[in-house]
Amino acid sequence: MNDIDAWVWWLVGAAALGIPLVVTAMPEFGMFAVGAVAAAVAAGLGAGVVVQVLTFVIVSIALIAVVRPIASRHRSQRPQLATGVDALKGRQAVVLERVDGSGGRIKLAGEVWSARSLDTGIAFEVGQEVDVVEIEGATAIVM
Fold first, then answer.
1. Rg, the chain, Cα only
2. Spatial separation of the C-alpha atoms in residues 95 and 8, rounded to whole Å
3. What pLDDT digit, counting tens, does each position of 39-89 carry?
4. Rounded distance, CA 29 to CA 17, Å?
5. Contact by Cβ (8 Å): 64, 28
6. What are phi and psi of 72, to 5 degrees?
7. Alpha-carbon distance 87 to 30, whole Å?
8. DSSP H helical segments within 80-125, as ranges?
9. Mean of the per-residue pLDDT values for the chain?
10. How many CB atoms lie within 10 A of CB 7?
11. How far is residue 127's CA from residue 135's CA, in Å, rounded to a whole number?
12. Which of 4, 24, 103, 124 has the CB geometry, 3.0–4.6 Å to 99, for a possible disulfide?
């Protein structure tokens, strides 16, 4: 064991920290792994044990302090491009069959959809343009 250099142990530690990163998807383990690689570089350059440990701690903490807030900010933002049914909300459609509170049909984005009126007291006649406010399953809620 004494024949193995310190930088090799740091790389083994980095690989060991990479395993829970993959298994748990916690990016903090990746940041600790990068800190271990930095400590391996310090050990490879001949730095003492104290400098190696300080390098590991400083790099790991710096990455957590800088990367984590950026990642959480990106995670909380809504996607710029709406897809699926979210892309249909707010679009206009044409009534194909009378739409009221109990149902009807519209043409939305080139497809025929079942629809019902948001306000049960209002009905839309064939040919009228309506706005899609929500999608519930395969039914468009219009007004």
1. 29
2. 70
3. 999 999 999 999 999 999 999 999 999 998 888 888 887 767 778 888 889
4. 6
5. yes
6. -70, -35
7. 35
8. none
9. 90
10. 19
11. 21
12. 124
Q: Which amino acid is at 48?
A: G
**Do the Cβ atoms of 87 and 110 come closer than 8 Å?**
no
Question: In which residue are the tokens 């916690």 written?
Answer: 26
Return the residue matching tokens 């395969």: 138
Residues ≥6 apart with Cβ < 8 Å to 44 = 5, 7
Contact 10, 38 (CB under 8 A): no
CA 90 to chain centre: 23
Which residue's structure tokens are 């701690």?
Answer: 57
| Contact (Cβ atoms closer than 8 angstroms) between residue 128 and residue 100 | no
